[in-house]
Design goal:
Structural class: alpha+beta
Strand order of the largest sheet: 2-11-14-13-12-15
Number of strands: 22
Distance between the termini: 70 Å
Oligomer: single chain
Radius of gyration: 49 Å
Number of domains: 4
Helix content: 25-40%
Number of helices: 5
Length: 396
């Protein structure tokens, strides 16, 4: 009897557990999502990309060609300067003194050159002529004695040498110095004149002027500082035109070409639109992003566009395109890495994943190459909370 009692108690407990298991589980609420129809496009293909505003050319790094102490530094960062405008000045005391010395040396060299190439003064010329005439008369008399063998050869050579020396002195008095002396004096003057030009240039180089028109992006000197020659003290960037440096996707690069027109928008200026021209397309992709660097030149006459601003570009390739598209944010990847979207079925009020093959981005849409027919409703918000077969509730 005791065993029968235990048996009845066990049956009673099992029946209680069974009844509890049959209690109704709480119903899960549908997940709110947003859905939209797959779009069909029949348009010309447009390449879109984001980029950054840069200068068309590298900024001009301006430096002094001579060393010295800065006595004046004028424009600051953000100031606009014209080509030829004075940017800074060095103390020119030493350079002006060097120029004065060079000019004095040139004057001395010029005087020596003028003396060498000019004939002697009148009184010197007259003295040389008298000496020459005297030596000439004596030479003729001695030559007659020598020819008559009344004068020894050694004595005759002395009179001959005196005659030739007087003749040379007279000719020099008439024509000036010897050719080689004239050439030497001329070379000395030309060298001194070259030193004057160098000293003048060094003095002029103490005043630094802008080589191009543009905006000062860096100023690296202040009054009182000592600057070495060649050290950049200003950086100037022209802002008209500017360029958009953007990366075009590998799937789009075959449609891009230099000379194409690009629509450019700058988020910092949402009320303005700009038009640019494709100037450069790199032949090598960036290994990290697999995009090709492209430069679009944009006129900027009012300098409204600033360096470093973000820009969006759209290039109409004129290539016809027909395709299905879904919003970019609706495309996900499953745990295996496959590209999927969630399709909403109104009759079942459920969403199921669908594997698709995607193409390039078209504006804010992703082109679908395969996997959809075109009449589906795609989950565009809330899809990150979904798994196959869950109940969903579309919201506006």
């Amino acid at each position: 009897m005791k065993n029968i009692g235990y048996f009845l108690i066990a049956i009673f407990i099992i029946s209680l557990v069974g009844c509890k298991g049959k209690e109704e589980q709480p119903k899960r609420e549908p997940i709110p999502v947003k859905v939209s129809q797959v779009k069909r496009i029949d348009d010309t293909y447009k390449i879109t990309a984001s980029g950054v505003i840069t200068a068309q050319d590298n900024p001009s790094k301006v430096s002094f060609l001579v060393s010295g102490r800065v006595v004046k530094s004028i424009p600051r960062e953000g100031d606009y300067v014209q080509a030829g405008q004075v940017l800074a000045e060095l103390d020119n005391t030493d350079y002006r003194s060097n120029l004065d010395k060079a000019k004095a040396s040139a004057d001395m060299a010029n005087a020596a050159y003028m003396k060498a190439k000019s004939p002697a003064r009148a009184e010197q010329l007259e003295q040389a002529k008298i000496a020459y005439d005297r030596a000439s008369d004596e030479y003729r008399r001695m030559k007659m004695l020598y020819d008559n063998k009344s004068l020894a050869p050694n004595d005759f050579e002395k009179f001959k040498a005196a005659y030739e020396s007087a003749k040379q002195q007279y000719e020099m008095a008439q024509t000036g110095a010897q050719p080689e002396d004239k050439a030497q004096a001329k070379a000395g003057y030309e060298q001194a004149a070259a030193y004057v030009k160098l000293a003048e240039k060094a003095l002029n180089d103490t005043v630094l002027k802008a080589p191009v028109s543009g905006f000062v992006t860096k100023r690296l000197c202040e009054a009182g500082e000592t600057i070495q020659a060649g050290y950049p003290v200003f950086e100037i960037s022209p802002l008209d035109p500017v360029e958009v440096n953007a990366g075009i996707a590998e799937t789009d690069i075959r449609f891009a070409a230099t000379g194409q027109t690009a629509d450019v928008s700058v988020p910092a200026m949402p009320d303005r639109k700009f038009t640019g021209t494709v100037r450069v397309i790199n032949v090598s992709a960036d290994p990290a992003t697999r995009t090709y660097m492209t430069r679009i030149t944009v006129p900027n006459p009012d300098h409204a566009i600033r360096l470093g601003m973000v820009a969006e570009i759209s290039i109409d390739t004129k290539q016809p395109v027909k395709a299905l598209t879904v919003p970019v944010e609706s495309v996900l990847r499953d745990p295996q890495g496959a590209t999927i979207v969630y399709v909403y079925f109104p009759d079942k009020k459920k969403a199921y994943s669908k594997q698709v093959e995607t193409g390039s981005v078209y504006g804010q849409q992703t082109i679908i190459r395969s996997g959809l027919k075109g009449d589906e409703l795609i989950v565009t918000a809330g899809q990150n909370k979904l798994s196959d077969g869950l109940d969903v509730s579309p919201v506006k």
